[in-house]
Fold Nitrous-oxide reductase.
Amino acid sequence: MVTVFIAFTSCNNASKSNSKSGALASNIAEKVYVAPGEYDEFYAFLSGGYSGNLTVYGLPSGRMFKEIPVFSQFPTSGYGYSEETKPMLNTSHGFIPWGDSHHPDISQTNGEIDGRFIFINENNTPRIAKIDLKTFETTEIIEVPNSAGNHSSSFVTENTEYVVAGTRFSVPIPQRDMPIKDYKGNFKGALSFISVAPETGDMAIKFQVLMPGFNYDLSHPGRGKSHGWFFFTTYNTEEANTLLEVNASQNDKDFIAAINWKKIEEYVNNGGGTMMPTDYAHNVYDEHTHTATSTMIKEVRVVNPSEVPGAVFFLPTPKSPHGCDVDPSGEYIVGNGKLSANLTVHSFTKMLAAIEGKKFAGEAYGIPILNFEDVLAGVVNQPGLGPLHTEFDDKGNAYTTFFISSEVVKWKLGTWEVIDRKPTYYSVGHLTIPGGNSRKPQGKYMFAMNKITKDRYLPTGPEMEHSAQLYDISGEKMELLLDFPTHGEPHYAAAMRADIIKENSQKIYNLADNKHPYAAKSDGDTKVVRDGSNVHIYMTTIRSHFSPDNIEGIKLGDKVYFHVTNLEQDFDVPHGFAVLGQNTSELLIMPGQTKTSVWEPTKVGVWPFYCTDFCSALHQEMQGYIRVSPANSDTPIKWSMGEDIE
């Protein structure tokens, strides 16, 4: 009997011991628990990769709050389907309904995150978008000409003077029909500097630097002492055009391109550069008219580095570097060579001294190559396999992801010693620390974004969501706190303290400020107007009815425009709109907003429309009918709300 008792208590104690050692141990769980009605401490903005959008999460909870449509049509809200937002997806190639979003970056003032805007790049059809963090809506998209694989983007300078867009794939500039085998020496890479207006955030391409035909992979701005410079990793300095996994991995060192943008800016402001004919779209959403417009621009200013001596230099970096990261002081530039056993850290101070002393190892297409030893700050020896990206905390530490060995490694700036390492699950790509891409990192957290999920979540067939893992970095050792799934394929994220954004978040659109040309600001403004075969319906929604709710006189062959205004002026009371047979998308209309859906009926009949967003206890009653008659019918346009149509 005694033996049985001892065995039982031993098992019970073992069970208690094990329960405290896992990621879900109570003390760990308490660190990520956000009680009902309480707020997360940080916002995290994760790129969606092939979803084309941007997702918003809270930290430390890992809860997803919103998906912001950016480069892809989004039927949940009607973005890219409504007449007002279709122009946002216009390009020189026509209407592009999807995108590949990669690297978000938040606007900064004096090197500190200010929470006004977030910028994100589209990789496939090169574009840069701006999201207003007051409304969490995409308000501007500018296409980037002379570019392909817009990858080393969209990072901002420390006063948001510029957001950059660097090409991953070099291409013929200007584009033309030529043999691919003639790549070397003929293809070029464009590094685009897009100016951002200080007050409004309006974007414009200021200039493009036409670089040799390498692949420009990632970039980061100088900050502090290195403000005025931008740094881009390159690979394929071999200028191979086939079997790149072999032919673009021959050189022992590739480059980090150092661009003195202030010097080039001065040159351009004095009339330098050449205006090159091209076509690119600039799409702007007006928050007063609730409508986007698309303008096609016909030229862009290009600058050859040879025109501005002393503006562009190459820093040799082993081997096939991917990440290019600058520490908060602006002194250290970390180049993560995917095929290198070590991490290479360059010194900005040494770089300036080498330039001043003309310590060049040679040149590439007229651009000076600095001596590797003269710009080297230090090396982190054999920290892991497959280094990709580095971010920084506020204590002088750096954190680097290792794709092959699936881990994050913490190391000390200046001493280059490894302090800690923690596994990730699995094949980690980017990592993010709130404010880690600024002069003042904010975070007590770091989260890693992993490419492979495997056994972390319940299986959902061959495709699973990607995985993010949250670590506490407030102590010397990192502590894994949480796994949470992420939507799409996050390539990078930007994060910041929630209080910087939260209080400025716009709750409604003021109905009095609604300048939409088809807005109906009261039920008395509703009407139906025929203009040839186009029929415009000025419609309102409010809990719990549409006005009008019965419409007749529509004919086959008509194009029907539903201009729907949400009259609510209360926070978080959107209304939806959908009509049977609608072949675009539903609409989701925010309080005080107007949106338009086009419907071209294909069948005679009486078709219901209804609110798609549950808005009140009488939501089910929020409906109406639209009568469609034959094309040769003489049924007149009529509408009503609350009475029969005579």
The helical segments are 2-19, 26-32, 244-247, 261-269, 348-356, 372-375, 499-502. Residues 122 and 382 are 34 Å apart (CA to CA). The chain is about 10% helix and 45% strand. The first strand starts at residue 42 and ends at 47.
